Amino acid sequence: MGSMNDITNGVPQPTTNGDSTTKVAVTSSTNKDTYILGRSHFSSSRLNLSHFLWKQVLGFNIHPSIPTSGFKRIVDIATGTAIWPLDVASEFPDAEVDGFDIALDQCPPKNFFPRVRKLGTWDIFDDPPEEMQGWYDIVHVRLVIFVVKNNDPRVIIRNLMKLLKPGGYLQWDELDLSGSHLERGSSSAGGSDVPAPAAERALKRVQGVSVNHWAANLPAILEEEGMVRADKDVYIIPPPWAKMFSDMHLMMENELPMPTAEARRAKEE
Questions:
Q1: Which of 53, 55, 105, 109 is the most interior residue, by most CB within 10 Å?
Q2: pLDDT 10s digits, 81-110
Q3: Are 58 and 6 in contact, with CB atoms under 8 Å apart?
Q4: Residue 96 belongs to domain spanning
Q5: Alpha carbon distances (Å) from 33 to 37, 45, 124, 248
Q6: Is residue 103 included in any domain, yes or no?
Q7: How far, in whole angstroms, is CA 91 from its chain's centroid?
Q8: 59 within a domain of the structure (yes/no)
Q9: Is-above-0.85 flag for pTM?
Q10: CA-CA distance, 199 to 42, in Å (whole number)?
């Protein structure tokens, strides 16, 4: 089990056109889609399940410390299936809610949820288009652990900050895998030695890759990059929900590329 971090209250120093009336454009990146997980109906179902499980544990879409009153423009970056902006647009019907990702293959047709104002393509490693800069009151991003390069999220942070209006908020929901461990249920005999070979393999892979050492230090990194204040809340997955999260993570494990034929065979055993 890994802990879930929620970083909020990051307010950038006032910079660019916070009161611009320019409409946000749908943009297209020239970069190749390097997303390492799948984009099938299986993958989309996993992302939708993830949204509802996270919401169950966190208890919110937008952190309660963020003053949503008067905030009109909200964007979800790395939006996946666009389920977060869909949910937020229903919760805040007066807000303008957008979603951006490097590809929109997993999103439903825009006319299926008219409350979401805009869906567009944007690579978070590129500078945001001028029309997006200084536009949003709230920027949300979740689960980019397999997107961050070289254990360094700074390029992403700088680009996300460019989206914010002066006084805006960045909410970053992330898994901190540094404390990942396996918790076993009780067997019928009353012991705690229930076999879990798939979970054990997944845990070894996570511990071997160490994909996000940066997550535990994200508040400090955000402040180094110019945020006025970065607060960190840690949410531990409650035992009643642990099995659901474990199943979801094993779904993701099935999507990760195996480096060798031997590794693929071992995974199938």
A1: 53
A2: 999 999 999 999 999 999 999 999 899 888
A3: yes
A4: 3-186+195-256
A5: 11, 20, 11, 23
A6: yes
A7: 19
A8: yes
A9: no
A10: 19
